[in-house]
Amino acid sequence: MTISNIILILLIVGVAALIIYFHIKSKKDAEIVTNIDVDDQTYTLQQMIEFIKRRLDEITKINLYDIGLSEEELVRRKSKKYELKKALKGCTYGDVNDKKYVKELIYDLLAKEYGVNEMNISKAIPFDIPSLLTAQDKFDILIYIYKKEFGYEALSEMIRKYQLDEFKYIQGETKPCYVITEDEINEIYEKENIELLFTDKLNIVVQRIYQQYKGYSSIDEIRDMNIDGVSGRCIWIT
Fold this sequence. Notes:
single chain; mainly alpha; about 0% strand; disordered C terminus
């Protein structure tokens, strides 16, 4: 075998080794989002929801055997992947522990990968401009604050404190009913004079993302509450 043939073989082997290396590295890096294209819509709720959907899909579907992990790391990530799949399935049926697991992961993904911070979080919910907050925003904030102190008695405590369990006549209805109106939510929010830390704001954003992605829309938090004589349903109207 000539020297030129040996050199050619070594060159081919080297190129093949590089191709294999970068193939494995690209798949390994695929689990981590490093570049986020930032524009005016990046930190809106809809864009965050799309990001979370994509990342959780990547985490649950990635082939761990194909990314060159050590045995210890493989075991760790297999466990994480299994727990996430289990939690995503369980939270669909209302399991509070699975819901907590998924929300904690969403929190970490937004804070560590997506770059949500004190400066841009108000693009999702205008926390610092009360006049721009919707009744849904204010209600989510109120429930979060009350839940920090009263746990699953949060809604009951708010109802008791502001006497929201009284019959009301609503326009177009002939009989009185139990409702919480937008006007009542706006009035309660003003009275509470709430001050939020960044962690509070992010937790509220996480809840909003979760309830639109895997939860039960606007009643997601309500359905977990302990409410005497009420089957977890509460509405507000204009």
